[in-house]
């Protein structure tokens, strides 16, 4: 009895102490904290499950029946040389576009920013189409992607020159939109001057975006650009981390803002250019992927970029699996299907933004 009384007294004195009252795990807020963490954990479990389903769906689709395990040497060759390169290339392109979109949204402080508005994708497309029109490269030449990347870097140079020495977010967007319009007009002129209808059709289909009929060489082309861009972003990680503040506040923190913005745009240019030259113009991935990650409750800039890489890869793999599964006379282009999904999403974002400012 005496022992029970001493234990009751100890519990009463402990619960009355300030340490007990302010402890996160023992106070009344513990249940809410655990619930939030549990909910975030469940979201990640669901995202991982969706990613696994997208990969399995993509690998097994494309034939007369869904199958993961090849039964014949021919099916084994198809899996290794056609399906797997297509899967990896789709994931790499989604990763590149997702990261590029997240970086632009953070740097420009605009949730509607995506790689297409910088004009870089248009510059890469113009360089590639011009090289094909002039007959300097074959459509399957490995030198063609490097020409496209040079076009993307030239677009970056134009963007930087016209945006000024100390570019602001709004000015970068306006200059990018103007460059995108100019490059789009040049592409239209080149298509009109195509030497024959077959060339016109081939170039037009390439511009619509697709990862079909690509092999491992395209994967080896994309991976170095992703690696170099990752190094640039890691080098500028502290500047990225402070993008939660206004530009005026960031300028007082001792950063060389102009140089850091150029390095971030260089990373975006590499990612966007290599995506264009390997898969054509695929829009809206850079817009949708960062918002999907924010729906998981992620708000830290570096975490948003890392999550957007995963989200963009899963999204593009899932859409390409859908393209492979659709029973159409001619396989739909990946960029067309992405646009049908991304355009309504953009309208939803615009409506939500209007309601927030109302």
TrEMBL record:
Q: Where are the transmembrane segments?
A: 41-60, 84-104, 116-136, 142-163, 172-195, 215-235, 262-289, 301-323, 330-351
Protein name (record): Iron ABC transporter permease
Task: Check the record and name the SUPFAM superfamilies matching this protein.
Answer: ABC transporter involved in vitamin B12 uptake, BtuC
Q: Which Gene3D superfamilies match?
A: ABC transporter involved in vitamin B12 uptake, BtuC
Q: Which GO terms describe its molecular function?
A: transmembrane transporter activity
GO CC terms in record: plasma membrane
Query: What superkingdom does the record give?
Result: Bacteria
Does Membrane appear among the keywords? yes
| GO terms of biological process kind | cobalamin transport
Keywords, ordered alphabetically:
Cell membrane, Membrane, Transmembrane, Transmembrane helix, Transport
The cellular location(s) given in this protein's UniProt record come to:
Cell membrane
Database matches in InterPro entries: ABC_BtuC-like, ABC_transptr_permease_BtuC
The topology of this chain with respect to the membrane is: Multi-pass membrane protein
Q: Which Pfam families match?
A: FecCD
Which family is it part of? Belongs to the binding-protein-dependent transport system permease family. FecCD subfamily.
């Amino acid at each position: 009895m005496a022992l029970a009384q001493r234990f009751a007294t100890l519990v009463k004195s402990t619960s009355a102490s300030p340490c007990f009252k302010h402890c996160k795990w023992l106070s009344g807020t513990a249940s809410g904290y655990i619930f939030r963490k549990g909910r975030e954990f469940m979201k990640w479990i669901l995202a991982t499950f969706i990613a696994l389903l997208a990969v399995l769906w993509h690998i097994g689709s494309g034939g007369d029946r869904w199958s993961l395990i090849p039964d014949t040497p021919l099916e084994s060759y198809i899996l290794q040389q056609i399906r797997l390169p297509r899967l990896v290339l789709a994931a790499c392109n989604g990763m590149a576009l997702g990261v590029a979109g997240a970086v632009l949204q953070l740097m420009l402080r605009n949730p509607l920013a995506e790689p297409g508005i910088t004009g870089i994708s248009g510059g890469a497309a113009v360089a590639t189409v011009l090289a094909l029109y002039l007959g300097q490269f074959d459509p399957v030449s490995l030198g063609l992607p490097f020409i496209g990347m040079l076009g993307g870097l030239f677009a970056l140079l134009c963007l930087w020159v016209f945006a000024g020495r100390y570019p602001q977010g709004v000015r970068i967007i306006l200059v990018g939109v103007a460059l995108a319009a100019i490059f789009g007009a040049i592409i239209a002129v080149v298509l009109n001057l195509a030497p024959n209808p077959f060339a016109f059709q081939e170039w037009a289909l390439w511009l619509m975006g697709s990862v079909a009929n690509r092999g491992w060489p395209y994967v080896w082309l994309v991976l170095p650009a992703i690696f170099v861009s990752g190094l640039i972003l890691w080098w500028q990680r502290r500047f990225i981390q402070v993008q939660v503040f206004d530009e005026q506040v960031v300028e007082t923190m001792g950063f060389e803002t102009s140089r850091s913005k150029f390095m971030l745009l260089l990373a975006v240019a590499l990612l966007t250019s290599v995506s264009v030259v390997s898969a054509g113009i695929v829009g809206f991935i850079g817009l949708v992927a960062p918002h999907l990650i924010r729906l998981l409750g992620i708000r830290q800039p570096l975490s948003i970029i890392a999550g957007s890489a995963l989200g963009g890869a899963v999204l593009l793999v899932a859409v390409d699996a859908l393209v492979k599964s659709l029973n159409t006379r001619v396989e739909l282009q990946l960029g067309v299907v992405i646009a049908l999904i991304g355009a309504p999403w953009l309208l939803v974002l615009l409506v939500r933004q209007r309601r927030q400012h109302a």
